Amino acid sequence: MRLGTEWNRRSFLGTLGMIAGSMMAPAKLFAAKAGAKVSGFGQSGNPYEELGVTTVINCEGTMTMLGGSILRPELEAVMAQAGRHFVSIPELEVAAGKRIREMLKLPEGYTALVTAGAAAAIQSGLAGILTGDNETFIKQLPDLTGLKSEVIIQKSHRNPFDHQLRTTGIKLIEIETRDELRQAISPRTAMMHFSNFANASGQIKVDEWVKLAKEYQIPCMNDAAADTPPVSHLWDYANMGYDLITFSGGKAMRGPQCAGLLIGRKDLVAYALLNNSPHEDTLGRSSKVGKEEVIGMVKALDLYLKEDHEALNNEWQGRLDLISRQITRVPGVSTSFFVPDIANHVPHMQITWDEAKISLTPKQVSQMLRESKPAIVMGGGEGKPGMAMNSFMLQPGEDRIVAAQLVRIFREHSA
Ligand SMILES: *Cc1c(COP(=O)(O)O)cnc(C)c1O
Q: What is the pTM of this model?
């Protein structure tokens, strides 16, 4: 679908209708066999090692820097099915949004868009608010001539992902108090942005922020990228009245790494899609989301919603308990547990030791784990002493390996 001179809404919809009408082709004819035999690159079963890149045991969680999450086999299978056919991507996007709306029981007037990640959802969502369905404006971004040009954000909510807001050309207006917010609102205000993980640090909390936005009739976005579990967050903020909400698909939901969700008001979600790939001459053209990711995101939600979340939580805690039991046998080592209130709301364990008994800094332990075989990635205690880890991205059996390596390192450096 080309956003060229001939592009307009009617031709866009007309093409969709034609495509929909011819969808009855015997698609099965083209279905290739799954589980193809691999020769050449990939034949070892670990293409990373074939490239000389060491795969790691992940004690840090759903970090994009480490590849996010690992797909469930059933999700892989459905994504492979998706890869065997051609479809109209805009038609697919709308249908996927409809299915997601049903699965999440979103409020009346809401739908969803699968994007290339939460970051892409932030960008496209704001772009849609700025441009509506005006083709000239869509092509013109990030030139804001004739458009609103400011987004209001609490100072403590600034974070690296607001770069995605700034790519549209807007200026961020930082405020701290309610009074400052009221003074900052002007005809230039396009949107009010909320960073969900920063809820505790701002003076205006998540529920009040959206009420204030409604009072001034300003569209309001909540970036909740890493904020499942709990699963209810997927609909809570829509129910609260946020116009747009973003989630990462490849974090705890274990969807495709290059997928995310923009949940929101139907009109705004439609405008976001017009600002996104596959439409050309758009800001979002660089955030392409493929058919496999769109289908994969729907399937990931299907699986995630059916999951026994309490059982999962117990399993994650059980892995930490196993590691704790083994490493605390080394004199001087102790552990404690915590769950972040929001974002990565899963069991974490802090590991500390008496440096008089074990002469190692957290940085050294981290380095030694990284160099152990298999390599283990575990960071410092995030502002707390010692090391911190979580277990929700560990694969079966890896808890034992982590425990054994930590015990070895601590014993080797015990006085
Ligand atoms: C991870 C994250 C994002 C980006 O999500 P992607 O799906 O990787 O694009 C945005 N905001 C916050 C707060 C995040 O944690």
A: 0.90
